[in-house]
């Protein structure tokens, strides 16, 4: 069939009453007389039954306007294409559906999306005179390559294509009606996805799951775990009796009972005797099975789903415990740790092992009311106050308290001991009532060692304090002499003395300064440890103080190759200890120059919400997350001391001083990305909350 080429190329027209009326105005006038002649005989044919569409339209005053109205106002999206594949006309519903109209250069036979989905042939068949309907497909004109459309909708559609040809003539156009099934398809895909999720949950569940349908209980689903537990038997598609013929009648009746009653059922530790492996070896396993009825759309029960857990090991373990109660009591008697058992509520002692009796110096009394324990047991707290009957460990655990390392002094016939008491409640199980287990740890020796250690620490701190003060005096004198020597060298830099000893003197000055800082750190630690740290508050401008301290660090920053980026902001005045605040800033700057050598160091001060915020950031080696809290402890560091000197006291001192002034410090850092220290200080000391009278 030869197709008539498109006569005129132009933009696609969207159908409106005015556009179509004007397009066909001439033809309307041409056939006006014919329509009038036709109308004269229309009444006589109206009663003759259904007439051809051409005859019916002939009786309408303006059939073209009527068809145009139907095309324009139809809720169905329509388009008309010429034989060469270009779009001639669309209606408003088309624009609303697609979000855009086809550009003039669009050609349905060059549509790569249709070609890729194998749909182009449907439209060729329509031009060949066949009425066709495409399957549902997703379409987004923005994905086209031969045309450019920036704004459009992605929709799921099906197309109904039918040819347009004059009576007895060749097809010159095709009309396409579009059905938007996006919502339906999305809902169907969502439902499919939910089904897939549910199927995946059932498939991967750690319990055996099956779905049985109908009064004959036919397997509709069995997850892999159930298939494995059943020895790989063929289940799906077979009834319960067919798939597992050796299942007990009682268990089958339990299944049927759920379907008949429509009520949920649970079988706890149900013994099931089967040939599980299908090898002729029958064994009994214990199962906890949950039965849930399944209902159809009308609410009628048409099946059930079961969730089964193999609890054989738990049941056998419980039986073993019940049979070995006396054996366990004998084992407890052999334990070197004292253990007693207390009855919840009453506080009565129900059991004591041999170690507990030995610690007491005699058999612990059983069957004695707990109210009498205050007279039978002499127990004091660490301060030496005797505990009343209500304060004894047994009375406390009887009230439901959980003890975790409670230290008490137990004065027994065998002597005085310090014990650490803990407790755990065993709930009622396997026929045994609830009980509280209380193990004792004899920590008498540990407390003696702890006391000696505390004395040693106090002696160490005292030694550090004395040694630091003693070292400070000669070091100060040495520093003054070096300073005088350095001034003499600076006064005559060309002298033989300057040329020979200038660099050595400068190095010695730095080492003396470093040694003085270490001694100051030890002094601070000794003051903190002995409680002699004092905070003397005064009005301090943190911004001005930061500028002063950073100015003193310029030579050290130059030696480290670090540029100091200081942003003090406006005045930030608060009530702080000036000397201690200088120490905080100095330690943070020294830390940044040490670990960020060769890179800039950034210092910033700001004030917000009644708090001052100091931020010191370097771009050095960084700190791993596990060390963020540890670096603020005494003698701790995040790197090897062989590469970076110091005692690991700087950040500990900073944290102590900041907290003493009511503030906080934290760090943000990752390895290789530098470290940022944040210090927050209240502008005014926080008053402690008044205690309620």
The strand count comes to: 26
Shape verdict: flat
Largest sheet data: 7 strands, mixed
Strand content: 15-25%
Helix content range: 40-55%
What is CATH's topology name of one domain?
Answer: Heat Shock Protein 90
Q: Give me the CATH superfamily of one domain.
A: Histidine kinase-like ATPase, C-terminal domain
CATH class label of one domain: Alpha Beta
Q: What would you say the CATH architecture of one domain is?
A: 2-Layer Sandwich
The overall average pLDDT, rounded, is: 80
Enzyme class: transferase
EC number: 2.7.13.3
Catalytic activity: ATP + protein L-histidine = ADP + protein N-phospho-L-histidine
GO molecular function, one term: phosphorelay sensor kinase activity
Report on the structure:
It catalyses: ATP + protein L-histidine = ADP + protein N-phospho-L-histidine. Pfam families: HATPase_c, HisKA, PAS_4, PAS_8. One of its GO terms (cellular component) is plasma membrane. Its EC number is 2.7.13.3. The protein is of the alpha+beta class and about 700 residues long. It is built from 24 helices and 26 strands. The strands form five sheets. Strands 1, 2, 3, 4, 5, 6 and 7 form a seven-stranded mixed beta sheet that branches. β8 (about 210-215) and β9 (about 220) form a beta hairpin. The longest helix is centred in the last third of the chain and has 48 residues, at about 445-490. It is flat.
């Amino acid at each position: 069939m030869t197709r008539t080429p498109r006569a005129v190329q132009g933009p696609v027209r969207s159908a409106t009453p005015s556009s179509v009326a004007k397009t066909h105005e001439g033809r309307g006038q041409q056939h006006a007389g014919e329509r009038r002649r036709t109308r004269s005989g229309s009444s006589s044919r109206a009663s003759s039954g259904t007439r051809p569409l051409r005859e019916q339209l002939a009786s309408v005053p303006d059939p073209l306007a009527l068809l145009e109205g139907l095309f324009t106002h139809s809720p169905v999206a329509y388009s008309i294409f010429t034989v060469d594949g270009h779009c001639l006309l669309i209606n408003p519903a088309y624009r609303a559906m697609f979000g855009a109209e086809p550009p003039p250069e669009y050609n349905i036979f060059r549509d790569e999306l249709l070609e890729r989905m194998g749909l182009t042939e449907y439209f060729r068949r329509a031009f060949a005179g066949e009425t066709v309907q495409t399957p549902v497909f997703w379409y987004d004109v923005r994905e086209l390559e031969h045309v450019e459309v920036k704004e459009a909708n992605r929709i799921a559609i099906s197309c109904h294509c039918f040819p347009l040809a004059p009576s007895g003539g060749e097809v010159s156009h095709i009309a396409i009606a579009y059905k938007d099934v996006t919502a339906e398809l999305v809902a169907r895909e969502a439902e499919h996805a939910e089904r897939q999720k549910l199927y995946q949950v059932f498939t991967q569940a750690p319990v055996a799951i099956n779905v049985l349908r109908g009064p004959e209980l036919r397997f509709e689903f069995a997850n892999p775990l159930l298939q494995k537990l059943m020895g790989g038997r063929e289940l799906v598609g077979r009834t319960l009796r067919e798939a597992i013929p050796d299942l007990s009648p009682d268990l089958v009746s339990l299944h049927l009972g759920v379907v008949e009653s429509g009520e949920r059922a649970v079988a706890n530790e149900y013994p099931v005797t089967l040939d599980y492996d299908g090898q002729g070896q029958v064994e009994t396993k214990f199962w906890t099975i949950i039965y849930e009825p399944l209902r159809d759309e009308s609410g009628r029960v048409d099946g059930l789903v079961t969730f089964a857990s193999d609890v054989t090991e738990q049941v056998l373990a419980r039986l073993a415990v019940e049979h070995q109660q006396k054996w366990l009591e004998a084992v407890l008697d052999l334990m070197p740790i004292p253990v007693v058992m207390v009855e919840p509520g009453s506080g009565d002692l129900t059991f004591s092992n041999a170690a507990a009796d030995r610690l007491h110096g005699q058999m612990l009394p059983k069957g004695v009311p707990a109210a009498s324990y205050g007279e039978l047991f002499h127990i004091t707290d660490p301060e030496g106050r005797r505990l009343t009957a209500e304060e004894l460990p047994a009375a406390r655990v009887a009230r439901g308290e959980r003890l975790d390392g409670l230290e008490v002094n137990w004065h027994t016939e065998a002597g005085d001991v310090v014990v650490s008491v803990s407790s755990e409640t065993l709930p009622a199980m396997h026929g045994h009532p609830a009980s509280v287990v209380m193990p004792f740890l004899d920590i008498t020796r540990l407390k003696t060692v702890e006391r000696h250690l505390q004395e040693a620490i106090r002696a160490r701190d005292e030694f550090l304090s004395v040694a630091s003060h003693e070292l400070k005096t000669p070091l100060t004198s040495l520093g003054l002499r070096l300073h005088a020597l350095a001034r003499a060298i600076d006064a005559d830099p060309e002298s033989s003395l300057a040329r020979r000893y200038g660099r050595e003197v400068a190095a010695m000055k730095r080492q003396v300064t470093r040694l003085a800082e270490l001694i100051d750190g030890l002094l601070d630690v000794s003051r903190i440890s002995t409680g002699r740290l004092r905070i003397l508050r005064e009005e301090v401008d943190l911004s001005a103080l930061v500028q002063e301290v950073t100015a003193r660090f310029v030579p050290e920053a130059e030696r480290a190759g670090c540029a100091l980026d200081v942003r003090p902001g406006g005045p930030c005045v608060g009530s702080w200890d000036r000397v201690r605040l200088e120490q905080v800033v100095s330690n943070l700057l020294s830390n940044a120059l040490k670990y960020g050598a060769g890179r800039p160091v950034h210092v910033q001060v700001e004030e917000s919400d009644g708090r001052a915020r100091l931020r010191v950031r370097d771009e050095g080696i960084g700190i791993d997350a596990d060390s963020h809290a540890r670096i603020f402890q005494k003698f701790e560091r995040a790197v090897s001391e062989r590469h970076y000197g110091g005692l690991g006291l700087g950040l500990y001192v900073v944290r102590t001083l900041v907290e003493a002034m009511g503030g906080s410090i934290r760090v943000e850092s990752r390895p290789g990305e530098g470290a940022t220290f944040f210090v927050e200080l209240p502008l005014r000391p926080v008053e402690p909350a008044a205690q309620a009278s």
